[in-house]
Amino acid sequence: MIFGEIMVKTANPFVAAILNIAESQDIGSFKKIFEYFSPRLKSFLMKSGAEESIAEEIIQETMTIIWTKADYYDPKVASPSTWIYTIARNKKIDILRKSRKAILEDIETAVLPAVEPKTEENIEHDQKFDLIAQQLDSLPKDQLDLLKMNFFEEKSHGEISELTGIPLGTVKSRIRLALEKIRAKLDKNGAMADLKESDRSISIN
Amino acid sequence: MTFDILTTPATSPASLLFQQCLAEIVPENKDLNQIKDEIGGYFLERSEPVSLSNDLWMKTINSTSMKNIKRAERRIDPFLSRLPRTLQAQLNDKKIKWKSFKDVKIASILPKDKNEKLELIHVMPGAKIPQHTHEGIESFLVLHGSYSDEYGNYNQGSVQIRSEDHHHTPVGHELTGCIGLAYTHGRIKFSGAFGKLLNIIAN
After folding, report:
1. Does B17 touch chain A if contact means CB atoms closer than 8 Å?
2. pLDDT of B45-102, one tens digit each?
3. Which A positions 112-151 lie with beta carbon below 8 A of chain B?
4. pLDDT tens, B89-105?
């Protein structure tokens, strides 16, 4: 069946793992996520300035949120890696402050309510994030590097300009163009169909 | 300006919450924010793994087993329901402590911090905030309703940036009033006789 083939092609194993945690608190699925993402999170966190012990503390907290709030994960909103990345990034912002006393709630679980039962039938969702990944794969390296510096290494446009020697205005316009390109592709494929037609353009003012 | 705010990496809880609310309240911002986060996830998957301490898995398992998965009931609060989900999640189990100044109510969203603050401002329908300027920079996001001042009218989802040299007298929409989110580096400063009193209370 065609539908079945599409499912196999697009289904991300970590989507199933998170759903298993939500449905049956499956420790095997949790371990799979832990083993794949924790070493990568550690790399991300240490590069953004966390000491090793703090990086591991943030990983532990991130994993705890995945375990306790898996039912809030919505595959229509984010890929597993993105959901996990945003949890860790938010924890990092909270914990790396001088006072070290956490004050943020788990706002990444705010895409509520988690009432819709998540079954095999409604996981043909990840088309959208597959498409974004495909778009990123096809970008020229210099554009991809700018996006990486801005949205993964968390550098401001000014810092990127200083590092690369590219004028500030050019940094901004290149990033905006790259994002518009990705969005145009998603629009074409109907992946942003939940949004109104009139709301498609990136606001620059 | 919206594009700049959304693409500047948040470095503090206040700036993160402000950015998330801005992303949530306007559909095209939400869209942009999703793509931006997917880029983060894309590079996370492609990061060079760094080996973990041997006991991290056991520590994690132990700490998760301590957590009670049953969580606090969502509060049904007509005021909260008008706010972006990000703020609902942040404020759900907390009592909002309003300070009232006549027809204007102000509540801090995060504990006091000397560098920045994030506040909800609720301006009642038709209410006028005394003329004031700002210390540092204030970014104001209209969450609900609208307001106007000497410079224009501002609707839901719009952001205004004010600094020290900006004197204005905002008035809440006469029917809806206005609920806004103010992210400030520095303290707000009121001018005028009533303003002096407000300065004492607000600071």
Report:
1. yes
2. 999 999 999 999 999 998 887 665 556 666 678 888 889 989 998 988 788 899 998 8
3. 112-113, 129, 132-133, 136, 147-148, 150-151
4. 898 878 889 999 888 99
Closest C-alpha to A166, from A145, A186, A188: A145
Domain A2-118 has CATH 1.10.1740.10: yes
Q: B28 vs A106: CB contact, 8 Å cut-off? A: no
**CATH number for the domain that contains residue B125:** 2.60.120.10
**Answer CATH for A127-199 from 1.10.1740.10, 1.10.10.10, 3.30.830.10, 1.10.3720.10:** 1.10.10.10
pTM above 0.90, yes or no: no
Question: B140 lies in which domain range?
Answer: 95-202
A54 touches chain B (CB under 8 A): no
| Triad B34, A87, A40: Cα angle to 5° | 100
A80 contact partners, CB below 8 Å, separation of at least 6: A12, A14, A15, A17, A18, A33, A73, B41
